[in-house]
Design brief:
The protein is globular. Helix content is about 50%, strand content about 10%. The protein has a four-stranded mixed sheet. A two-stranded antiparallel sheet has the order 3-4. Strands 6-7 form a two-stranded antiparallel ribbon. It contains 22 helices and twelve strands.
């Protein structure tokens, strides 16, 4: 009998919670679709359909700089609030969105540098390895990136140009990710994983990453559902006791312990992670070591691949941009692969890559933070209460016309250069404002740890490909496809490659 009384009581509690979500006074002032006040189902569905980022743009166009997107979720598009939410002086932890990101080892949940919510724990995990990701450290490994770029060019030539009679379509969307994964392998363990060599993903590692990131994005909108799927005791005990890429990291560590490095003269990232474990045994246990390596593998390839696809595609779709990039490379008699310091010193090349990063952000998820207990002041005349989840989305912020100009919807590398009638001081100020508000790698202490790895790869590989090859779309009448879930991943961009006049493998150094 008492059990029967329990059901109406639970129903009453659910109804009361429903009314609270709809009519809660502390968020009632924030505009947005009426139905998002009821539950996070809208966010779940839109992320599943890979439409959340585009809908966030539409909502901000309709309602303004602050929009309610869920019962306890608010999306912000005011650049003045970037530092307030994500800055070094603030303490806005990540939301429960990261719960599905957490890895499992022997049935137990573990948090890593990316998926820990606690900022103190994040700082603790970051401290032993921060120097490994510094620009000076990555610069010391630049030759290894050059080796992989040279091999990439060689494999493209062998597979699609000189090794064949006639033209053949290059599935470039896949090949740039083969490069990115092999490049992170070279940096992490001093050897490539074999993607470029085989021109394939025989172990479905990239497929595993795609499925993992899709799961994180979709389930992260309603984190409690994670416990119904993968986060529960039964799944962790009997179905997947250890996350797949943690197993791969464990195997790489074991291989290093047994066989040593293929290039013992190098201090690759694996060697330095192990050194960090010895120097900080109280912080870097075996699970943390595995998590460092896993983060490299999962995050290290997608970021680079997304930007490289975008660079190639927008260069092809804007022939005047392609021509100007190639002209600048030719005029400066650059050598290939480009040195990073050479690439960043070429004004138009640098502007082009910065515009690619702005125009096609890597992340499509909202970058969620939780308002601290004392609440959050806003420039809208109200205060957000503690516990509210506030977020910005790069596909919104990177197109702000107040920051990036009235033509922010247009792909225009010239915005990153001094205008003809613009003074040096005015240009310097405008560019500093754009750089401060460009949101591709996030901001503050939780900014992408591997940003310098990505910069080295992008500023070296993109101009190398554009400088050496004439690249055209195999089906120019066909638009590519972009799936905006965790990352803004592109597909269906097959291209035709030919050497540019006077260019060949003889122009490429670092060949194996």
């Amino acid at each position: 009998m008492y059990i029967l009384l329990l059901f109406p009581a639970l129903a009453a509690l659910v109804f009361i919670r429903f009314l609270y979500n709809v009519f809660r006074h502390d968020l009632y002032w924030i505009p947005g679709p009426f139905f998002v006040r009821f539950s996070n189902i809208w966010r779940f569905i839109e992320m599943y359909r890979a439409r959340y980022a585009d809908n966030a743009v539409a909502l901000h166009h309709k309602y303004g700089k602050i929009v309610r997107t869920g019962p306890n979720h608010v999306s912000v598009a005011d650049p003045d609030m970037i530092d307030q939410i994500y800055g070094h002086r603030q303490d806005y932890p990540k939301s429960d969105m990261v719960v599905p990101w957490q890895k499992v080892v022997n049935g137990k949940i573990m948090t890593g540098i990316v998926d820990t919510r606690d900022r103190k724990r994040h700082s603790e995990l970051k401290r032993p390895v921060a120097s490994i990701y510094s620009m000076s450290s990555i610069a010391n490994a630049e030759d290894f990136i050059s080796d992989t770029i040279a091999y990439f060019v060689k494999r493209l030539d062998e597979s699609f140009i000189s090794g064949l009679s006639g033209e053949r379509k290059v599935p470039m969307a896949a090949w740039v990710q083969y490069f990115a994964f092999d490049a992170i392998g070279e940096l992490t363990i001093s050897r490539r994983f074999g993607f470029l060599e085989t021109g394939a993903d025989p172990e479905d590692q990239l497929g595993q990453i795609d499925r993992e990131l899709e799961y994180r994005a979709v389930i992260g909108t309603m984190p409690w559902t994670h416990y119904l799927i993968k986060g529960n005791w039964f799944y962790r005990r009997f179905i997947e006791p250890t996350t797949g890429f943690i197993l791969k990291a464990s195997n790489l560590i074991k291989d290093r312990a047994v066989n040593g490095s293929t290039h013992p003269e190098r201090r690759d990232m694996m060697a330095r992670f192990i050194e960090a474990q010895k120097a900080h045994p109280d912080i870097v246990d075996d699970n943390v070591l595995r998590a460092y390596i896993t983060t490299n593998l999962v995050a290290g390839s997608d970021t680079t691949a997304v930007v490289m696809r975008a660079a190639i595609y927008y260069a092809i779709r804007n022939p005047h941009v392609m021509k100007r990039v190639q002209q600048e490379l030719d005029d400066n008699n650059v050598t290939y692969p480009l040195q990073y310091k050479t690439s960043i010193a070429l004004p138009y090349v640098d502007a082009f890559i910065n515009e690619v990063l702005r125009y096609h952000p890597v992340a499509s998820i909202p970058l969620e933070r939780v308002v601290p207990p004392e609440g959050m002041p806003t420039p809208f005349g109200h205060r957000l209460p503690g516990g509210v989840v506030v977020s910005m989305t790069p596909w919104v912020t990177n197109f702000d016309t107040e920051i990036f100009g009235v033509d922010a919807e247009k792909f225009n590398p010239e915005r990153w250069l001094q205008g003809e009638k613009e003074s040096h001081e005015a240009s310097k100020h405008r560019l500093s404002v754009m750089r401060a508000n460009e949101f591709s790698f996030s901001k503050g202490p939780r900014k992408c740890l591997g940003i310098h790895v990505a910069q080295q790869e992008l500023w070296k590989c993109i101009p190398t490909l554009l400088g050496l090859f004439d690249i055209t779309l195999a089906e120019p009448q066909k638009e590519w496809k972009v799936k905006k879930q965790f990352v803004s991943k592109q597909s269906e961009m097959d291209v035709i490659l030919q050497w540019r006049p006077g260019k060949s493998l003889k122009d490429v150094s670092h060949l194996p």
